Structure formats: C-alpha cells, structure tokens
Fold this sequence. Notes:
The complex is a heterodimer of chains A (374) and B (233).
Chain A: H1 3-8, H2 23-45, H3 47-70, H4 76-80, H5 84-95, H6 102-115, H7 130-141, H8 163-170, H9 185-194, H10 199-206, H11 209-214, H12 226-238, H13 245-264, H14 272-277, H15 281-288, H16 299-319, H17 326-343, H18 370-373
Helix pairs in contact in A: 2-3, 2-5, 2-12, 3-5, 3-6, 3-8, 5-6, 5-7, 6-7, 7-17, 12-15, 13-15, 13-16, 16-17
Chain B: H1 2-15, H2 26-31, H3 36-60, H4 69-91, H5 93-99, H6 101-104, H7 110-118, H8 125-155, E1 157-158, H9 162-166, E2 175-176, H10 184-187, H11 189-232
Antiparallel strand pairs in B: 1-2
Helix pairs in contact in B: 1-8, 3-4, 3-7, 3-8, 4-5, 4-7
Amino acid sequence: MSVADYRAVRTFASPHAHGGGEIRRTMRRVQLALTPATLFGFWLYGWPAFLLWLITLLSVLVFEFMSLRLAGEKDAGRILGDGSALLTGWLLAMTLPPWSPWWVGTLGAFIAIVIGKQVFGGLGQNVFNPAMVARVALLISFPLQLTAWVAPLPLASLAAPGFIEGLRITLGQIPLLDAMTSASLLGFAKTELSRGVGLAQALAAGHAPQLSWLGVRAGSLGESSALLILAGGVFLLATGVIRWQAPVGVLAGTLVPAIIAHAFAPEAYLDAGSHLLSGALLLGAFFIATDYVTSPVTDLGKLVFGLGVGLTTWVIRSLGGYPEGVAFAILFMNALTPIIDHCVKPRVLGRTWSGRPVSLAAPPDARGGSRHGA
Amino acid sequence: MSASIKTLVKDGLWDNNVVFAQMLALCPSMAVTTSGTNGLGMGLATTAVLAASNILISLIRGVVSPQVRIPVFIILIAGLVTLVDMALDAWLHELYKVLGIFIALIVVNCAILGRAEAFASRNGVWASCVDGLAMGLGFTFALTLIGLIREFLGSGTLFAQAPQLLGAGFAFLEIRLHERGGALLMILPPGAFAVLGFLLAGKRLLDARRQAGQKSRQKTSDAEESAAPVDTR
Lengths: 374, 233
C-alpha cells in the first residue's frame, strides 16, 4: 500500500514526556487574559465593581473549600489552589451588573460552585458551565437587580463614588437610582422594537460603535471593552490554551445570520456590528464557549458547538423575549455536548473513516515491518 | 402486632418515605409544591385516597384474580379520586383551583398503585389502613416541607393562604417574613429539583450518621459486655 496508508497508523513510541501542562497553569493564563478587561472595567465603573468582584471571588473560594471538605477531601487547600473555582467566580463577576449588591455575588457563587459544579462531582464532572448556570439562575430569580446596568462613571471623574460610598453601594445601603442606570444597547433595541419603533430611528441618536470598541457604555465588566476582551482571546489562542474552532464558530454563528437578516430587514434586525460589540458575545466566544469541561473534545465538535452557540444567541436576541442570549445559548449547547461528542468522532486508530481496518502492508522503504502487520 | 405497626408508621414517615426514599410520585412533588399550603393540601388529598384505596383493596384481595388485578385497582382508585376531586371542588374551592389537574392525576400517582400492589393486596385490612395512613402522612410531610422551603426562598412567606385551606382559625400559620420577595427561580421547576436534591442529600447524611452512631454504640456495648466477666473474675 501507499505511504499515506502507512502513515495513517503510525503512532509515537514510548517513552512519552509530559508536556508540562497542568490545570493551575491553564487557569492562570485564562485569568491573565481576563485581567486587562477587568482592570479597565474597574476604572470604568469604580469601586463598587471592584468590591463586587472581590466578594464574588472570595465567596467562590469559601464555597469550593466547604464543598470539598463536605465531600471528605483531605487536601482541600491543594485542590483549591488549582484556580478553577477562582476562574469560575471571575467569569461570573464579569457578567454581573457592576453595581449589584454583595449578595448577588455571594448567591451566584453558591449556585455556580455548589449547584453548578460540586454536586456533579467537582472539576471536570459538571455538565453545564458553572458561571453560566449561576448567571442564568440569578437573571431568572432577580430580573430587576440583574438588569440594572449603571452608566459608566470613570474612577477619576467627579461623580464617581469614593471607596466608602462604593462600599455602601455594594452592601446595598444606597439604592440604585433610575437616573444612574441605562439600558444596554440590546435591551434598548428590544424595548424600542416592542414599542413599534424602527431600529434606524431608535439607534440614530445613541449608538456609537467606536465607544463600544473602547467600552465606554452601560454594561457588565465583561462587555465593557470589546477590544480588551478580543486581546485576551488572541492571547489565549497564541498560547495554545484554546483552539480557534469554538470562538470562530460562535462569531460566525451570530454574525452570518445577523448580516443576512439586516440586509433584508434593517428596521427589524440589528446590524452585525452591534451584535458583535454588544452583550457578552466576545466574552462568551473566547472565554466561556472554550471551557474544556463543557464543550466537545474534537476540533470539528468544537466548531459545531460554537456555531450552535452563535446561532442560538442570534435567535434569542432577535426573536426571543430576552435582549441577550449568550448565557442561555451556551447552557443549551452544553446540554447537547454529549450528543455532539457522540456524533463527531475522530477516526479510530488503525481504521479508515468508514471503519474498515487499514491495511498494514509496509511502504517501500520499510519492508521489515510488514510481517508483523499481516 | 404493635411492633409491626410501629415499623409500618416509621417506614411510611421516614425510612421508606414515598418521596425521600422510594422516589415515587415526583410529578406532584415537583409541580404543586410552590407553597407549603399547596403541598399540605395535595398531601392530605393523596392521604385520603391512599388510606381508602388500601382498605378497599385489602378487602377484595381474596376475590380478585391476579390477571385482572391492575384494572380493578385502577378503577377503585379512580372512583376514590373522583370523590376527593368533587369534595375539594365543593368545600375547598380555592385550593381546588390551585391544585387543578393534579387532583385528577392522583389516579396515576405511582405511590398509590405501588402501595396497592406491594402492600394492600398481600396484607390484612388493619395493617393496610395503617400503612396507607403512614405512607400518606409521609408524603404530606415531604410535600409540605418542599413547599415551605420553596415558598420561603421564593416569595418570603410561610403557609400563605393557609386560612383558605384549613379555615379561618388557622390564620396564625400564615407568616410573611419579608416584603422584598425572593428568588423567583425557587418557585419555578428548577427550584423544586434543587430543593428535593438537597433534601435527599440531607436525609442520606442523617441516615448515615444515625447508622454510624448505632454501630459505634453496639461496639461499645459489646466491648462492655465482653469486658464485664473479666472484671468479676
């Protein structure tokens, strides 16, 4: 048989060396990739945003530790150090309204770690992305608090709350005034559409893509700056933490239908740019749809998963009742991940795609091996 | 006899609880337990049907041939459920409106046919009656507990609208804990699953603790007994 056939069954013989990858390093890299956008968010939304982030992270660690101890884990501290819980809390904090009261973060941490992760058996066992489970549970439980997007008040500006005032906002002692909050672009578009106002008229005044790129607008930490999230994503791609299939799938899944629909009915459907820069699309594409645990194993599977997330997001945003759908879409595709993994399988070693055994006849330059194979 | 009744009651209420141990009748346990009052009403209605069906089936167990027993049981149960359905509609109309279709669905509540098959068709009338009551009360306990927890977390009340079910004398049961409302999710189906899951885990933990405690107590008493003769010698 040909050389190509022979190569098809070639494997690398032992000894194998460990690549040096470990959970802790991967988690640290993802956290590093999140840092610029997070710091920018702190600057944009002031002390309350930082305090909420801190409280969410601390709560996550406490709940993870308690769950591990309850499960009889002797060395809970070491497992805690792998950083996976910390990352879950971080991602959750990035999707919350920055001026939420503290209990939103703590309750979210409980839902993410205990119900979303440890109940299934801990890291690697959970079906759904814990941060998204918490995010959706909070959104459904407290629709009011979870849609109070505060308009940006950069730290240096005069109106920004000082540390003490920020603490009081996070502790829930100062109620959020309606004047301080504003709708996110997606929410605004949805409301205007439901009132019968066309998009061209509705968005004529307020929509400024360049501000969206920078992130100066009402939203969560995770949608503050599209540019910095994108930079984090590219860093993850460059360091090999994630592969390109899932993010590209998510972006294509949302943008392609958005372009087509907008071309046909610009009054009823948002343009692709607004879809790309609003909400959690970029964060979801690079940081959440690429979760190792809850997305398919194979490259093709990841692509299918990403396309599914993107398409579902577009459908929810454009046709559904909620203005934003990334979290729902990711949970939905998480549920389909086992099916994707079942349908999209790599070729079995030593067999062709159709399942027939590969002939082991040696290539011309390695005759000696043929006797073993036959 | 009294010992066996004690075990029957204990089985029904805790050890072999319909919801927490047998994991039967989960459909009403999930669907109607949005408040403690609903859970209590559904539980009591089911208890009435369960006790009556157990008695009747135990009475006719000698004359029904095994081949036709299931249809006969179902017709008996359906008749009883229709009675309960009409009675609730007449006297507890508010509750009837809330429980709605789930009253009629008591017919296919697997706990009832389960007790008919597993117990009433093999035991005497008295034991079947006790078993039906114990199982029913265990079910009521489970539903009320789930309902109370969901109500507490979801809307911040306890036994809301209790007077409509139990009469004006029970208005003291109705407690409004805070005005803020609660986590809407707990009133929705996922809340029921989460609460049931945590309650099941809690029951297992309790049972495991109790078993471990009994074992260690047995061990120490064994040790004392074996040690005692040595001392007297």
